[in-house]
Amino acid sequence: MTPVELREGDLDEFFRVPFEIYPPDSPYVTPMRADLERYLDPARNPLMRDGGGKLTFFTAWRDGRPVGRVTAHTHPASNTRHGTRRCQFGYFDCEDDVDTARALFDAAESFARDQGCDELVGSFNLTAMQQAGVLTEGFENQPYTDMVWGAPHLPRLLQTCGYEAVFPMSTFEFEVGARTADALLGDRQRAVLSDPDWTWKPITRGEFKARFEEARQCLNDGFSDNPMFVPLSPAEFDFQAGEMMWIVDPRIACVAHYKGEPAGVVICIPDLNPFQKATRGRVGLMTLIHFLRERLRRRRAVIIFYSVRRALHGRGLNGAMLHRVVKALFAGGYRRCGVTWIADENTASLRQMEKLGATRLQRLHLFRKGL
């Protein structure tokens, strides 16, 4: 077999890799090329620009075509907060060939050592609200927005390269029916919904900036004790979430206030993956037509995250918020909803999935190697 050639920093060919190695009918959905360009630009991505992180990316070539890719980056704020010397990899897509995978990870590991790191862990796809994990089960299922998909051979290649699976996670999917929301109601949730001290603020385009700043505050406070979490700066949050202004459906996302102060948030958006798959990740003459077509027939939504401030845990707010959102989903014509990754150790969120009758869509793990 022809030896593999490695190239660093070639964005066009990095973007091409999945289209070269995965069949057109695979569940893979590319990020928009313009978004990928932003994520991989250290001068624009605040994780690198403001936080002092270092970033590089590699493309593997064989016989004149790109057949593998991976990013490697450091996250100094995460290492400081969690007492680690970790480098993170992301966007790992590769042909089913061990030599190609080894070439990519040899380069990523060399970068990690040069940055003074003692482990390489992934997958983390770079942004403030990161896609995380390598798919290990559920390869046949179509992912929702902000979920990853990778071929079944990727975990095997990682293990062959010396990486171990850690930190198990799952994504979920549930049917949005007339009575789905009622399964979330108990005495505490009903008390919240009937108490005038609790108010509900839709995320409209006109008040988007104010609501999303409140969402950032609720996320940072509610997730503060979660493993690997690092509080997000306004710039980091806006870097990815700011673009939601153009796609948000104000009926299905809200910020809850308690006595006039932000208390909790549910960010739920229409599933954009059918649109992105139709465009193949590029803006062109048909982009607007694809967008309008998918908007007219959308039946899938995805909950990106939900969070309640720690001082209000145990009050029933989480279930009350989800109840309102699921009711709005049904009224808006949505019939299926995905939920992005939940760690196995997050028993509270897993209980919410049980109440919703959600089924596991994907199984994911981080993969780690000591250096």
TrEMBL record:
MF terms in GO: acyltransferase activity, transferring groups other than amino-acyl groups
Entries under PROSITE patterns matching the protein: GNAT (PS51186)
All copies of domain N-acetyltransferase, residue ranges: 210-371
Organism: Brevundimonas lenta
Protein name (Swiss-Prot/TrEMBL): GNAT superfamily N-acetyltransferase
InterPro entries per record: Acyl_CoA_acyltransferase, BcerS-like, GNAT_dom
Protein keywords: Transferase
Lineage of the organism: Bacteria, Pseudomonadati, Pseudomonadota, Alphaproteobacteria, Caulobacterales
